[in-house]
Amino acid sequence: MKIVCHGWGGYRNNGWSWPKYVAELQGKDYETFSFKNASNETISRKVIDSVLELRSSISHLYVMWTGPEKYEVVQKDYVLGSESLVVKDQNTNFKVAYGQHPQKEKHEFYNKHFFNLDRQYYRTLEHILRTQQFLTSQSISFTMMIEHKDVLRNTFSSISEKRLYNEIDWSKFIFYDGKKGIKEFITDYANKNSQSEHDASRLAQYYWAKNIILKTENFLPNDKFENLFPKVNNVENVLNDVDYKKQILDTKSASFCGAKWYNATIWLGSGMTTSCHHPLPHKIDLEEIKTNPSAIHNTKQKKEQRRQMQCGERPAGCEYCWKIEDMGRNAISDRVYKSKIFTNEDLHTAFATNHQANHNLKTLEIAFDRTCQFACTYCNPAFSTTWANDIKQKGPYTGLQSDGRNHFTHSHESAEPYKKDETNPYVEAFYKWWESDLHKTLDELRITGGEPMMSPNLWRLLDWIETQGDKINPNMRLAINTNLGAKKEIIERFKKKLWNFHAVDLYTSNESVFQQAEYIRDGMDFEYWYENLNDIILSGVPNSVHNMCTINALCLESLSKFLEILVGMKNHKRSINFTLNILRFPSFQSPLVLPDDLRNKFKGDIEKFLTNNEKWLEGMEIEHTKRLIEYLDVVKTPHAGAATQDKLQKDFKVFYSQYDTRRGKSFEKTFPIIGEWYRGI
Question: What pLDDT sits at residue 146?
């Protein structure tokens, strides 16, 4: 006998979501029949079909109904060019696009001419009632739930809708906090534990299964729990940040940080590494990696810093955290967040082991090279071959006086000393380490660039995982940064490779619209980027999609319009979020270079966006938006070492006048609002 699960959250068979936890807590087998973005029509049909197939072996059936805005499209044939967006239902032989029509223009046509929310609420009740009646007729024990509070409503558009509502057996439903669903539960759990909803989701869904569905006081056995949650220890007592610092970190030493052992950022193109983003990167010893490939992480410098931490001394390179902690006894620095992702056993092992020992990583951010087809205004030759070629062919930018000027004066050959036809010893050391040990221990692999899809080494790695994926840590999560500007065939190949991972987070970057976006991110085709973003969300391959906005002076003119576009995607798919990362360097491209009147105008636009869209935003998105509003209102200088406003504005004009000439662009035509001020500098 087995548990059968349908609806939101169970679309990855054997995935880490509530169906898995319900089964594990009861010691039973389970099976899911869920599809990402499936509508309630699909869910109802799948419930009936699964019962007809498995009714003699079902001990209990769970259904989680989803939002009424989703609809199902059944096609005679695959839509041309969108095969990856349409799933063939083997039992019905339907070719189904879940959630909405896969072609943007047809989805918009449907919404304009046919979509009616009252009708969708009505049909949701029909699906629930029909499903309940069928399950009852088959003597199937069942429980129903909702994804979020807006799946149902208590006000009705007609007498008929109210009659339907009253016919449903609501005793078969489980709710959270009145008539709320699992999404609200995850949000509340994340807020309570000072986590992002993304980070909190796995553990919150465990508690949903344990406390909401089963209402059991029992916990999973420790060995089972460690298997399900390798990054979480002690489910009975997940500590808040202050208590964690006092009871876990500071009992080892007053300066201990797990990142120094188990986390790294490594630039293989230049042979540089650091333990996190705060300490300056340092060079990897070429002689060491000949005999010890893991020395691309386990460098002499890191080992000395580990010794210091074991002794309670503060490594100078970690000054960022020490400044925060010196603000007060309960001040929480990033060493807490960067340690909390590792188990207490991992931290104990690190602290108790001789500092000269080599350690395998748990989390790794890696860049194979700087190859990139874009040359964004605030980037530089160290991270983009297109930028490097610009400097090589047209010479350095001249006349810049403030910080960042050196980034635009030479091609940064040191960032990639090895030519494409040469063997890079850092890359080869990585693969030796990867194939021997590293693939067994990594919980998260994050790949950056440049543009990763343009690097042959990305495909070398993905091919290895595809053929030998049974050897890797089965819980490994892939996070990848991409500008989504590659050719269609490359992106399609990329999507297929991602299915080999337990979980995938995709990160892309943009912060403006159309010509303004293409000006800021030279090389971008905005409509092509949007199409690829939409397609990859609909494909259901990534577990989550994140857009990282780099808030610079130029993007403010259309930022609110851009965020509206993201919210429009979020309304239907609820699988994309954004962060607003404020540019501080180079200072002359900071949003603070703009005069007060422009900053105030753009601040007002962002405030209006927040007011109109807050109900659609995640907690992190709301906080980032509020932070930007406050930043534009209060902060006067990008950082302590920045030049005077007058000098920054002069550099702004000097840089973009040369940028226009080199790139065949026009600042004043592209940015009409900022352009008026720009002319007068």
Answer: 96
246 in the same domain as 224: no
Whether residues 401 and 492 fall in one domain? yes
The closest alpha carbon to 499, from 539, 449, 558, 442, belongs to 539
In the numeric block, which tokens belong to residue 469? 């994926």
Nearest to 525 by CA among 372, 371, 374, 370: 374
Q: Are 560 and 589 in contact (CB under 8 A)?
A: no
Q: Which ranges of 395-472 does DSSP label H, i.e. alpha helix? A: 425-433, 439-441, 456-468
Of 118, 127, 167, give the one whose Cα is nearest residue 146.
127
Nearest alpha-carbon partner for 65 in 161, 158, 149: 149
DSSP state for residue 586 in the 8-state scheme: S
Number of domains in the chain: 3
Find the DSSP H helices in 208-318: 222-228, 241-244, 259-262, 286-291, 300-310
Residue where a domain terminates, one of 311, 338, 357 = 357
Residue 42 · residue 94 · CB < 8 Å: no
| Per-residue pLDDT, 410 | 87
Give me the sheet containing 87-88, strands edge to edge: 73-75, 95-97, 87-88
Decide if 63 contacts 134 (C-beta within 8 A).
no
What letter would DSSP give residue 29?
Answer: E
pLDDT at 16 (0 to 100): 67
User: What is the torsional sign of CA 613, 614, 617, 621?
Assistant: positive
**Does residue 271 belong to any structural domain of this protein?**
no
Residues 504 and 403 in one domain: yes
Which residues in the chain show pLDDT less than 70? 10-16, 36, 75-103, 193-196, 198-199, 219-240, 329, 571-574
pLDDT of residue 81: 42
pLDDT of residue 350: 92
Direct distance between the N- and C-terminal alpha carbons of the chain, in angstroms, rounded to an integer: 76
Task: Output the DSSP codes for 66-80.
Answer: --TT---EEESSPPT
The pLDDT value given to residue 83: 41
Measured CA distances, 59 to 7, 29, 31, 209 (Å): 18, 10, 11, 17
Domain containing 248 equals 241-259+285-357
Give residue 363's pLDDT.
Answer: 93
Are 131 and 44 contacting, i.e. CB atoms less than 8 angstroms apart? yes
pLDDT the model gives residue 327: 74
* Residue 89 maps to a domain: no
CB 124 within 8 A of CB 40: yes
Query: In this predicted structure, what is the pLDDT of residue 261?
Result: 96
- Whether omega for the bond prior to residue 595 falls within 30 degrees of 0, making it cis, is no
